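Standup notes, structure subgroup. Blocker cleared on the manganese (II) ion input:
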Amino acid sequence: MRKVTMRFGQNFYLFSIIVIVSLLGRPDVATTTLWLAPIVWDGTFDQKMIDNIYKPRNITVATTVFAVGKYVRFLKDFLESAEQHFMVGYRVHYYLFTDRPDEVPAVTLGEGRQLTVIKTATSNRWQEISLRRMEMIEKLIEKELTGKADYIFSLDVDSKFYAHWGAESLGDLVGVLHAWYFGSSRNHFPYERRPESQAFIPFEEGDYYYGGAVIGGRLDEVHKLAKTCRMQLDVDRANHIEAIWQEESHLNKYFLYNKPSKALSPEYLWDDTKWKRSYLKVVRFSQVVKNYANIRPNP
Ligand SMILES: CC(=O)N[C@H]1[C@@H](OP(=O)(O)OP(=O)(O)OC[C@H]2O[C@@H](n3ccc(=O)[nH]c3=O)[C@H](O)[C@@H]2O)O[C@H](CO)[C@H](O)[C@@H]1O
Ligand SMILES: [Mn+2]
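Run returned:
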């Protein structure tokens, strides 16, 4: 009898430890959305296990970067830091859209990584540059990527990688939770509120506010996203209305009705100017400090 009790006691002890350790994962933050998509935080995944799944698949990740006008100055840091931290050990093909191909810095790329420069028109409005990204991603997937890549990311160039960003970020359709609005209630989100715009979201709707600086997923899903947003942008243009945060507003509308299958936490899109919060154990990718008046065609 005494032996049985002891065994039960030992098992209970072990069981308690397992429960505590699993709860310790990230009890301070939500790790799934209400539609049960994972929210990727430090401490919620095992990198080795993830690599064991994705490495044998021999995948290629296309990555679009736009550097128009003075934004070419961000390329060096962006690319050098990406080579240190972004999808290291995987095949990455950067597609760099720029109006200044001569100013693209020479950055040594790792094995299996390549960069294609695509000359693009210049623009007198930064809003236009940001808006046109959807159309260019749509066309790139149609004309170039089928059969050549498995996943695609679109990333803002005025940013830098500071820590590991790997295959844990891959999914069918991936969005990033905007650092400035994470934890705010939805009526504070800067969604487009004018019903005249195709990006309109009423105050009683919305789950998260997603940043326009990171979009990812499988080619077909991102193609559908880019095409839909481009069409909505065309309708807005015909109606002489521009959504408050340009393509980011349309992206938020899209994600409201086509939920991402994975959400990246603000670790994947922080802001160098923002005070670090306790939930932020690591900054992986962050917007660099910039002087808007200095770098944009129209500040
Ligand atoms: C952190 C975040 O989510 N940022 C979003 C936000 O402001 P941001 O202040 O981050 O916008 P931004 O000035 O970085 O422009 C977005 C991107 O467009 C490109 N670009 C822009 C201007 C220019 O003269 N040359 C050029 O190449 C460049 O790749 C840049 O990273 O709202 C924008 C909406 O319009 C975009 O959705 C951004 O992704
Ligand atoms: Mn930016």
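Discussed briefly. Residues 156, 158, 213, 287 surround manganese (II) ion (ligand 2) (CB under 6 Å).
Next: hand off to the docking folks.
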